[in-house]
What does this fold into?
Amino acid sequence: MDINAANQEAMGRVLTAQPVLVGVGRALDLIPGMSLDLILHAGPPITWERMSGPLRGAIIGGLILEGRAGTEAEATALVERGGVRFEPCHHHAAVGPMAGVTTASMPVYVIENRAAGNRAYSNFNEGYGKVLRYGAYSEDVLARLRWINGTLAPAVGDALQRAGGLDMKAMIAQQLTMGDEGHNRNRAGSAIFGRLLAPHLARGGLSPEVLEQVLRYFADNDLAVLNPVMAACKATMDAAHGIAGSTVVTCMARNGTDFGIRVSGLGDRWFTALATVPVGLYFPGFSAADANPDIGDSTITETAGIGAFAMAAAPAIVKFVGGTPAEAAAATLEMYEITVGENPAFGLPPLDFRGTPTGIDIRKVVRTGITPRVNTGIAHRMPGIGQVGAGLVRPPMACFEQALEAMADLAT
Amino acid sequence: MDINAANQEAMGRVLTAQPVLVGVGRALDLIPGMSLDLILHAGPPITWERMSGPLRGAIIGGLILEGRAGTEAEATALVERGGVRFEPCHHHAAVGPMAGVTTASMPVYVIENRAAGNRAYSNFNEGYGKVLRYGAYSEDVLARLRWINGTLAPAVGDALQRAGGLDMKAMIAQQLTMGDEGHNRNRAGSAIFGRLLAPHLARGGLSPEVLEQVLRYFADNDLAVLNPVMAACKATMDAAHGIAGSTVVTCMARNGTDFGIRVSGLGDRWFTALATVPVGLYFPGFSAADANPDIGDSTITETAGIGAFAMAAAPAIVKFVGGTPAEAAAATLEMYEITVGENPAFGLPPLDFRGTPTGIDIRKVVRTGITPRVNTGIAHRMPGIGQVGAGLVRPPMACFEQALEAMADLAT
It folds into this structure.
């Protein structure tokens, strides 16, 4: 088993990936293995008993949205009598930010990796404040989700058809020259996404009132493109998964309780440890005491070499997650220590267009003692509240150590 | 005469400026002193005999657009028999990129400086390729201008009314965190401009076909926001003009033949010298032999402390104008040597949010031998062709030496 050759094969699949946003549809119709009694969530597998507040809150909201429960109490009772199955988004070629809760009726973006032929999916971004992905499920949160399901998603799907899809690799490359790192900062990408769709939305037969609402979604939401970016990263990394001998990390994800990773050459196994609380900046009125441990599938961006790995491109992000611009560049530089290579498609202007550090090698992580860096939002630890800040976090070293031991076991 | 106190007064007016894009209207109706027989142009005053090819081309196009001539020959004859008056945009509180040709029927953006109460104006950006501002005047160029006059401008004006105007200071501040420097690179700003207007455009009563065209203008044109940005800079610097004793440059502009500057404490006098050819990158098929000398009012951006002065914020621009990202940062750092102060509203992320170098002091320019840096487009030297490249240029030192002599004469 030649690990280096296997890692080069994995890297080749990452570098040649061609993720294209091809459309929008209903999770039940599109996501492989989706069913009415199934709720997908972020991170590695977890039982209801061990779930954190924001994940439980999002599940309660999802069950009310689906009409399977009328209240929090009904939703909880339904779960406790075994009426709901839970599986990770990642088991279904999907990803979701924060709680990542994806239910049958929800619309999803469809990304096709035209190099490898695989697809990946992500739900729609709800915007800021009290939102399901941070565990909020009040009536206004649900009303917003119904509007996304019934109005926004069909309009965007229709516009994407007329646009002939959207090249997400070119999108990400462009974002990285415009101060985005693609995880916590997606302002430029969302502006580009909105401006590209706008002329096609104009031809969708929407009333002026509805068209205004849809265009306002893109005008106001600096995270609109996050979910397609995440799905593009998922489609990219899935293509690099399953290569015998490869020590490249193809997934990092958190369910709010555990941080888990998967490795290309180690099949479907998860290597998990307890998630930690990010270090960051809190919104007025909140502090670290309110924070839930790290949560969400959005670490697929770092797994694919953007997010905190591309932080050098986004010095202004320190106003949101803390730190200094020099530390932003240092974050990227450090990640070259633990990656297999660089992605020339994603050139970082402040580093003279050097490609982003790409392809986390568990061997290098364990050898150097450097864990991957992650930029992230911070959820309140209680259900029903929402986002309380944003910051920086690293996965537990134990995940990488366990994976390396598993790789050693395979080799013997 | 306390020069330093006068310069602090000028700087104060720059730093407190509040340029807001308040609307759109017809040049004839809005620009002070505009008339049917008058054509405004970029740069200092110039006679037809001394005008460069692209400026002549744009004037020919402007006369055909206004219906004052049917052909190039008719336009030239009309000019040669004295039927057209020419004055700088800058004499009318206006600015225009490249040739800067602004005629009576053209729509203009209106910027109000809410701190000082003054207004400034700029025409609409036409997009890329064969365009009037680069001296092209073929039928497709004119058709595009008619569409801007008749369709785009009214729609944008209407949307701006519904939006309640647009804070250009906040816009520029945001651009500088998104890889724009506000002169040659306005990709992020144009995307934001488009996304902010889009929901308001949806309510303008336009047919889907026309709305699609208007939204496509914003989707395709990375310079859409350049003209309002220039007018915002003009409204800012006009407020700092006319302070007795101030050696702050309030205007730098080129007509394609001469580079001219004006100084706050030196009234309406221009200090000019022959413009030079920018050093830069050429589009395929063109070279420096095709280039016209430096042209346009867009140097108002550098005068106000953005453009090349903010190049540290836009490392990716070197792919367009030449050089390396390190040189982009060095360009900004050098400009601190010749400026009165820094603008904290325009923090540069790569320089730890240091404010842009602002307020060129002619004394410092002459003493250090450092002339201002300018990012610019390059026009073909012949009329009727258009843009051939983009690059970097500096004004002639003679402009600053003459101005300093004039200041010395005043003091004696």
Q: What stands out?
A: The interface with chain B takes residues 177-180, 187-188, 191-192, 194-196, 198-203, 205, 208-209, 211-213, 215-216, 218-219, 315-316, 318, 324-326, 349-353 of chain A (CB under 8 Å). The mean pLDDT of chain A is 96. The radius of gyration of chain A is 20 Å. The longest strand of chain A covers residues 339-348.
